[in-house]
Amino acid sequence: MLERFFAAPLDPAKRLQQQIQERLVEAILAGALPFHEPLPATRVMAQRIRVSRNTVTLVYERLAEDGYLKSVNRRGYFIDERYVREQLHIKVDDRARNLIPAAASSVDFGHRLRRSFSGQQNIVKPANWHDFPYPFIYGQTAPDKTSLSRWRDCVRIAGTTLHSRDWMADHIDADDSMLVEQIIRRVLPQRGFRTEPENLLVTVGAQNALYLVAVLLCGPGTRVDMEEPGYVDARNIFLSHGAVLRAHEVDGNGIRVTEALAGASLVYVTPGHQSPTSVTMTVDRRMSLLSAAERHDFLILEDDYEHELNFVGPQRPALKSFDQSGRVIHVGSLSKPLFPGLRLGFIVAEQPLIAELRALRRLMYRHTSTLDQRAMAIFLAEGHFDAHIRRQRASLSKKWQTMLAAAARLLPDCDVTMTTGGSAIWLTLPKGMSAREVAARAAQAGLLVEPGDVHYLRADPPANRLRLGFAAIPLEAIEPGLKLLAGIVRDLKG
After folding, report:
1. For residues 71 and 59, what is the distance between their CA atoms, to the nearest angstrom?
2. β partners of residue 416
3. Is the keyword DNA-binding in the record (predicted)?
4. Domains of the chain, earliest start first
5. What is the Rg, in whole angstroms, of the alpha carbon atoms belonging to the chain?
6. Cα–Cα distance between 427 and 407 in angstroms, integer?
7. pTM of the model
8. Strands, E assignment, 314-371
9. Which of 27, 33, 146, 173 is least enclosed by beta carbons within 10 angstroms?
């Protein structure tokens, strides 16, 4: 019966030991192997599935360590009957529960919910974006094989005895001290400021940081001002806590700082690369915003998620670097420029606020994965993060230049918002044209673009805006993709 579990060929692109072990565990739990007979000898098994004998030996040894097998002297490996029967007993109980007739659902959750998030307007991104030949999708990155290899090394090092004792225990509400030190020494100075460990909190990505801050500082009626257009998820976070939002227009220098900010309790901004237009707030505008905060007594929530991606001139200091009164709450991301799925971010703020955020985080999830934190600390300490940023900046700079040049040549009837970097461009289609219709036609042709109306707070947003992310698309696909987009725009324009 073992043969049917190895009928499908092994995938040479995956680790052989892992594949063989998975199939043997499946066979054991399925009852395909008798308890009283030994497994095929390692030489026999290796010949059957056409792998080396050493590979099979290592798999058998690991299965014995995990309790599935036991080694009997001079007889070979047998299934550990007691251990496996325990596992099978659990499975039988699960199957028995599944046989209980399911009653028709009679629970009405509508009147029980104290908050509802499912009705919020969100950015929609297809899960199969990899399948599009021209994925101008924002928030994804092209794989960096060097960084991936370095990250695997760091995870392996983090798992050694030297480091494992520092992450195996529950840290309760503390962060990995090595990561905190590396952020303070290696990350923050590039943003123009330093801090102390008690002023820093590690979070599950930058967005989790925004949510934690909103829980503490927002409530029914709290006035939060933000950019127009602005970051959709931040808007939804504030609204979900009952905040009253007021929007302020963005121009080529960032959010417009006027006396209309008077009365705000919190002002949320993305000064490094504004979401979604990618414009960078000038130093003069930053100083004006800080002066307004002092004058009108509001706090500033700085989301500096793409600080490293400036391609023109030196990297601009973060808004926090100019803060003399402690009004700026700085949020950064470690994972977005590296591996977006890793989800590691941080908050830098005054110690009393960090203490409250730490207590809140303890109630939610205590702390982020200490293994991931230690691996990231090693990644930073060995210089891999800086090297990755240099490679990423060089790659994205070429794509950025190609995007701007090709858009100017191929889409003369469209207006591109000029930036100094980032990973997307903000495109205005001809007046009266629907970005959603363009996106729908583009998708049918294998071209993925994102309508921009969702980024506006007002009820009548402009319908002719597109955001074109270029981090995930290959450099050589940019111009053919924009040619395809240009053809769709011409057809709709008539």
Report:
1. 13
2. 427
3. yes
4. 2-97 (1.10.10.10), 129-141+387-493 (3.90.1150.10), 145-382 (3.40.640.10)
5. 27
6. 9
7. 0.86
8. 328-333, 345-348
9. 146
Q: How far is CA 23 from the centre of its chain?
A: 32
Give just the sign of the alpha carbon dihedral 269, 305, 481, 122.
negative
Reported as half-sphere exposure (CB side, CA atoms, 13 A), residue 110 has a value of 3
CA dihedral in degrees (347, 353, 355, 360; nearest 10)?
-80
Amino acid type, 80: D
The count of C-alpha atoms lying within 13 angstroms of the C-alpha of 280, restricted to the half-sphere facing its C-beta, is 23
Supply 489's token pair. Answer: 């725009």
Residue (of 299, 291, 199) closest to 243 by Cα position: 299
- Cα angle value 174/158/201 (rounded, 5°): 25
pLDDT of residue 12: 83
Question: 150 CB contacts (<8 Å, ≥6 apart)?
Answer: 379, 382, 384, 387, 388
Max CA distance (Å), the chain: 87
* Vertex 52: Cα angle to 48 and 53 (nearest 5): 80
Residue 202, classed as helix, strand or coil, is strand
Q: Are 62 and 77 in contact (CB under 8 A)?
A: no
Q: What is the DSSP letter of 184?
A: I
Do 158 and 371 touch, CB atoms closer than 8 A?
Answer: yes
Alpha helices by DSSP H, listed for 38-144, are 42-49, 53-65, 81-98
pLDDT (mean) for 224-243? 97
Q: Taking the C-alpha atoms of 39, 45, 51 and 57 in order, what is their torsion angle to the nearest 10 degrees?
A: 40
* pLDDT greater at residue 4 or residue 286: 286
Q: Let me know: does 179 contact 379? Beta carbons within 8 Å.
A: no
Q: Which structure tokens are listed for 131?
A: 């399948």
467: exposed, middle or buried (Cβ count in 10 Å: 0-12, 13-18, 19+): buried
Given a contact cutoff of 8 angstroms between Cβ atoms, the answer to whether 365 and 172 are in contact is no
| Residue 80 vs residues 86, 110, 421: alpha-carbon distances, Å | 10, 50, 60
Average pLDDT value for residue range 104-130: 84
- Find where tokens 């099978």 sit: 88
> Which amino acid does the sequence have at 428?
T
Q: Is 472 exposed, middle or buried (0-12, 13-18, 19+ CB in 10 A)?
A: buried
Distance, in Å, from the CA atom of 8 to the CA atom of 16, rounded to the nearest integer, reads 13
pLDDT digits (tens, 9 = 90+) for 137-195: 999 999 899 999 999 999 999 999 989 989 999 999 999 999 999 999 999 999 999 99
**Predicted confidence (pLDDT) per residue in 243-272, tens digit:** 999 999 999 999 999 999 999 999 999 999
Asked if 304 and 272 touch (Cβ cutoff 8 Å), the reply is: yes
Read off the pLDDT band of 92 (50, 70, 90). Answer: very low
* Host H or E run for residue 359: helix 351-364
Q: Rounded CA gap, 426 and 468, in Å?
A: 7
Query: Could you give the 3-state DSSP secondary structure of residue 133?
Result: coil
